[in-house]
Design goal:
The chain is of the alpha+beta class and about 500 residues long. It has helices at about 1-25, 110-115, 225-310, 315-345, 355-365, 385-405, 435, 445-455, 480-485; strands at about 25-35, 40-45, 50-55, 70-75, 85-95, 105, 130-140, 145-155, 155-165, 180-185, 190-195, 200, 205-210, 215-220, 370-375, 410-415, 420-425, 460-465, 470-475. It has 3 domains: about 1-95, OB fold (Dihydrolipoamide Acetyltransferase, E2P); about 105-220, Nucleic acid-binding proteins (OB fold (Dihydrolipoamide Acetyltransferase, E2P), Beta Barrel); about 350-488, Heat Shock Protein 90 (2-Layer Sandwich), CATH 3.30.565. The two termini are about 110 Å apart.
């Protein structure tokens, strides 16, 4: 029983397949070939009743020539499109020797090509016909065998397929933004795509083989989106290159500036050292002349006078002159020790400015009981670079106060500020007219103090008046690099 049922089912299926095969019998028609694509293996035929049919042929067989009048047969395709006869396994033969028959061209809007018949369009009805339409080029995509051009009109769009053959490229004016007109064979095979509120036709194509089928209606605006993007990209690239160049030049300028600054600093230091040596020579000359030479000359005079008294037998007077000579020699010895100490390295007298000043005060006997030292603020390590200069200024100011001002009390006040050191030497001596001696180059003491202060980019002020004492104020800035090294 089961075997019989299986045999019956097989017979029923075989009968259905035979019936379906018999229903797909070959059909024959004749007409003008409007379009043929050997790569896709299909062509269109327009018959005498103004109806078109699409035929697909097998591999290895060339298609008919466009414009030829042929008799063609084929099997109906399972893929049907409304308003279009679609056949497969086509075969053809010439119906006449006439070739190059002109196919009429129909001017159609893109909207009529992509709308379904129930919306007033006849897109599928025009498949295989030669139509001419126009629109704005939206995009151009170049492929190996064809170039696809999207053309839009309003909200509707169609794809123009330019098949590369005798014309390998599309005209230059076919670019995004241009208004163009194109003529070719229209094709739309697929059923309607139904979506809420609208019914459209899928995959509408316009096949073109000749570049002359395009015509420019309106050139695109220069500022298209693509050109704008390219321009922005070029500008950004140029700005990036300019920025890199500026950074490179800035690096070179900074490096050259550092080199020049280092060279200038080295030259300035060399000048300062040379000037310091010259000023020290000048100071030593002044000290030897003003102190040591005068004392030795006085001692010589006393000795000569004493010898004269001895020759005359005046022993008491000779002894008195010899005593004055010995005192002058002692003073000369003290002055010489002072000069030698000033030439000595100041670092041996202490590691701070305060200890250096106190050490100097103890070295000079004539300072005892008359000179007072006062310090305020925290002494920075960077103050050591100017301690020697301030020591020389202090010695000169105190020496002038004792020698010329006949001062009984001298106050040395040193203030350590944030970026500078201020030293004030004030005395109660007789004072003098600053304006009178300001331009006198013979006043080596004042000149040497001012030069020492300027050596370290500092300043020196002298405030005095007859009978009112003298005040010498020296301000020395702390070197920036010294401060940075101290912070580090």
């Amino acid at each position: 029983m089961k075997r019989f049922a299986a045999i019956f089912l097989f017979a029923a299926m075989s009968g259905a397949a035979f019936a379906d095969e018999s229903s797909r019998e070959r059909r024959e028609t004749e007409g003008v070939v409007t379009f043929c694509d050997d790569n896709r293996r299909f062509f269109y035929v327009l018959d005498a009743h103004n109806r078109t049919a699409r035929f697909t042929f097998e591999y290895g067989h060339p298609g008919p020539q466009e414009g030829a009048y042929v008799i063609v047969s084929g099997e109906p395709s399972e893929e049907e499109a409304p308003g279009l006869d679609n056949y497969v396994k086509a075969s053809f033969r010439p119906a006449s020797w006439e070739h190059g028959i002109e196919v009429p061209v129909e001017d159609v809007e893109i909207a009529d090509l992509v709308k379904s018949p129930d919306e007033g369009g006849m897109g599928t009805m025009r498949s295989g016909r030669k139509v001419r339409t126009h629109g704005k080029v939206m995009s151009v995509a170049d492929c190996k065998r064809e170039t696809r051009i999207a053309i839009a009109q309003g909200g509707d769009e169609i794809t123009v397929v330019f098949i590369k053959g005798e014309s390998p490229v599309v005209p230059d004016f076919v670019e995004p933004g241009a208004e163009v007109e194109a003529a070719g064979i229209f094709e739309c095979l697929y059923n309607y795509r139904i979506s809420p509120g609208e019914t459209l036709i899928d995959n509408a194509y316009l096949y073109v083989k000749d570049a002359d089928a395009f015509r420019l209606l309106n050139a695109p605006e220069w500022w298209t989106a693509a050109r704008l993007r390219n321009t922005v990209a070029i500008v950004l690239a140029l700005l990036a290159a300019l920025l890199a160049l500026v950074l490179f030049l800035d690096m070179l300028v900074k490096r050259r500036t550092r080199e020049l600054a280092a060279a200038e600093l080295a030259a300035a230091r060399a000048d300062i050292e040379a000037s310091a040596v010259a000023r020290e020579r000048l100071r030593l000359t002044c000290d030897l002349h003003d102190d040591l030479q005068q004392l030795l000359a006085g001692a010589m005079c006393r000795l000569k006078a004493g010898i004269n008294h001895l020759d005359k037998g005046h022993d008491a007077k000779a002894k008195e002159q010899f005593a004055f000579a010995r005192q002058a020699v002692r003073e000369a010895q003290t002055a010489l020790r002072k000069i030698l100490w000033e030439l000595h390295d100041s670092t041996e007298s202490g590691d701070s400015m305060r200890r250096l000043f106190e050490y100097a005060a103890r070295r000079f006997a004539q300072w005892q009981g008359k000179v007072e030292m006062h310090f305020s603020g925290k002494e920075p390590v960077a103050a050591k670079h100017c301690s020697g200069v301030l020591l020389m200024i202090m010695q000169e100011a105190v020496g002038n106060a004792l020698k010329h001002g006949k001062a009984e009390h001298i106050s040395v006040d040193t203030v350590f500020g944030g970026d500078r050191i201020t030293m004030t030497v004030a005395d109660d001596g007789c004072g003098f007219d600053v304006a009178h001696f300001a331009g006198d180059p013979s006043r080596l003491g004042l000149v040497s103090m001012r030069l020492r202060a300027e050596q370290l980019n500092g300043t020196l002020r002298v405030v005095s008046a007859p009978g009112e004492g003298t005040k010498v104020v020296a301000e020395i800035p702390i070197l920036k690099e010294a401060q940075e090294n101290e912070n580090d």
